[in-house]
Amino acid sequence: MLKSPTGPPLPVRGATLESRAETLRVPTGVSDFDHITGGVPAGSVLLLAGENGAGAAEFALTSAVTLLRASRASAPGPRPLYLGSYRGPVHIPSRVTYVSLTRSREQVLSEAESTFPPEYGATLAQGLEFVDLSSSYFADTVVPSEWTQRAGSLLDQAPSGPDTSPLHALAQEMDQRGPGSLLVVDSLTDLLVRSTTNPEELLTLVKGLRRRAKTWNGLVYLMLTRHVSDPALEQGLMDSVDGVLGFSWVQNPLRSVRARALLVEKSMSLLSRVPKELHGRFLLDVKGLQGLVTTQYERI
């Protein structure tokens, strides 16, 4: 019998505990994408890398809202979940934690409310655990401390200790809140543009996170804006995670409008489950209560 941290025992059929644990999958909440991929293995660290406004943030917020709703429907743990046309045993993280380096809770909620239906903002406001690390991020910069002061619960306070640099503060919060969570880190871009960030330390942190997350039984999204950092460093980050979902703007030569597209750039566990005829990019749109959806498939 396999027992989730908070759910009932799950029968193991024809597999050892170890092999069964490796097969648990977490839905992304983007229904068509989940239908094709079956979700991602629990414990994965995914890099959501893309151009500005191309869908990475919408993907993360759709995941957050969908998993919050699913965890409220019944006790968290391995169970069947219905997302669009996908049906299968998946693991629902017990909580959703959003870690921001520079933005406030109000900014993130406001963005969600302006992009999605009101129900999205309400779900996030009620269930999202928000960690604001702006005090650590701006501590030794020209930004006045008054600009990062905020009133809120303990979840909104930056960590304290002998070393409160952004990298160490981020590592502390991830280790504390990662187990059993969908953990969204917004963003690696903020760290990369900070002059005091050591690129080697950042890469080491991501590599360590990839190892540590395998014990958490959750899912980690690392947000990254493309073409901001050195290409070699960006490639190093891609090599340090389990999977890379690339978001970009594409243009149809026969039409005057742009479209957002998603491409699975790296992930053995995802690509191995996608039929070869579907190895391409997915066009994206925001559709009401469904959030971000895939509207069309294109070969490339």
Key terms:
single chain, 300 residues, alpha/beta, Rossmann fold, nine-stranded mixed β-sheet, two-stranded antiparallel sheet, 34% helix, disordered N terminus
Mean model confidence by pLDDT: 82
Helix content: 25-40%
Can you tell me the CATH topology? Rossmann fold
Q: CATH homologous superfamily?
A: P-loop containing nucleotide triphosphate hydrolases
Kindly report the spatial arrangement of strands forming the biggest sheet.
Answer: 9-8-10-11-5-12-13-14-15
Beta content comes to 25-35%
- Radius of gyration, in Å, reads 19 Å
Tally the structural domains. Answer: 1
Ends: how far apart? 44 Å
Residue runs with pLDDT of under 50 for 5 or more positions = 1-22, 75-80, 82-86, 151-160
- Named at the architecture level, the CATH assignment is 3-Layer(aba) Sandwich
Biggest sheet features: 9 strands, mixed
**Number of E-state strands:** 15
Q: How would you sum up the global shape?
A: globular
| CATH first level | Alpha Beta
Description:
By secondary structure, the chain is α/β, with parallel strands linked by helices. It has one domain (2-298): 3-Layer(aba) Sandwich (Rossmann fold). Helices cover 34% and strands 27% of the residues. It has eleven helices and 15 strands. It has helices at 17-23, 31-37, 56-73, 105-115, 118-127, 134-137, 166-177, 188-192, 199-213, 231-239, 268-271; strands at 2-3, 9-10, 25-26, 40-41, 44-50, 78-83, 86-91, 95-100, 129-132, 181-186, 219-225, 243-251, 258-266, 281-286, 292-298. Helix 4 (105-115) runs antiparallel to helix 5 (118-127). The radius of gyration is 19 Å and the shape is globular. The N and C termini lie far apart (44 Å). 42% of the residues are buried.
